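Hey all, quick one. A colleague (J.T.) asked me to put the N-(iminomethyl)-L-glutamic acid job into the tracker so the inputs and the structure tokens live in one place instead of scattered across chat threads. No bug as far as I know, just bookkeeping. Sequence used:
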Amino acid sequence: MSDLILQTPRFIHASNSPEPNSSILIRDGVIEAIGPLDSLIRDDSDCARKTLHIDASNWGVLPGFVDAHTHLVFSGSREDEFYMRASNRSYMDIMQRGGGIHKSVRSLHQASEEELIKRGLYYLDQVLRFGTTTVEIKTGYGLNFQQEEKMLRVINKLDSLHPVDIIPTFLVHALPRDLPREKAMQTVLQEMIPAFRSYAEWFDIFVEKNVFSLAEAESLVGRAHQSGYHIGLHTNQVHDVGGISMAIDMGARHVDHLEVLRPEDASRIIDTPELYSVFLPSAEYHVFSERVGHIRELLSIPDRLVLSTDFNPGSSPVLAPPVIMSLAVLRYRLSDPDLLIHAFTRNPADLFYLQDRGRIAPGQKADLVCVELDNAHQVPYWGTLDIVAATVKSGTLYRFHHDRPGALIRDSLP
Ligand code: NIG
Ligand code: FE
């Protein structure tokens, strides 16, 4: 692998403010140094090594995004429900009548592993295109043993095929509708949770009224904990069934959605140092929720706040982190752009115990996003434009933009 120098970007969103006109030297997939160009070149004593110099003067550089919550492996799509929700059918009502998640379950059962891998690679290319270098992917559209295992094999295969790093999660999304409830519970408890630990280190469950009772969720999470998974929860999205106390009692690492949150639960989250809160503004938006994620009550713990896409065919057909940041400003009235960036970079990296990424500093993995902007605060502001010019993943540069602004139009003129 050749070395890479990103020469004099307009700005670098680094842990320690670099000197003005700094460049970034990348060696063996790792950030080696940040500083004035001559100092980096002088340090480059090994003449046999090839160094690729990239003019980054039209770009700003941020840490690659870490997307902590997605359902990226699925089959089919659910635009019908998008419009049904626009005419006042609720997300949960559609699910209880066999649509929603259950529609994705039916499609996934029909799909071969090859089809799911092909589709997954298509979305992962877009993940990289939007500047995300690490992405969590959940199961949850299989429901039974065989189909959930198929999803886990696909997710692990995608990790081996695509440069983006993948964190697999076994998600118990619902119980199959064609089995007696008690039997289905026993299969998850006794068979799936222990067997799937070899495919996934993370466990998640949809703690919600009419999906899992608190007692059921407690027994499943308890078993997952015994089997050695780290725990995250979809909870407090539509109803509060006591998921926050359970998460804290069971040592969960993260709680996601939090659209309904009692003040005493917000205080408990603040007082639990290892617990992260993940907010999914696109999912709120796309299910026409009148509730708003309670991030403002947690602003005293900025290092444990995470934003994610929740990319999935139902509640969030959005994959671009800057769009999510923009929605977070609009929906939550967040006014600190650095918080928004940290919530998509170092905070989710810390959530997953990934100490080697999420920051721009010597020794960190060279996972970077290069944006065609004047300053980092423009990322959420111009978030819905095509701002990512290139992504660096483990030291390899993937370029997306033309060098000459307007080239698309000019080249097509006679
Ligand atoms: O995070 N709320 C539950 N699960 C997902 C949606 C998955 C789907 O609708 O397919 C969520 O919103
Ligand atoms: Fe989700």
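Adding what we noticed when we looked at it: The longest strand covers residues 165-172. The chain is about 35% helix and 20% strand.
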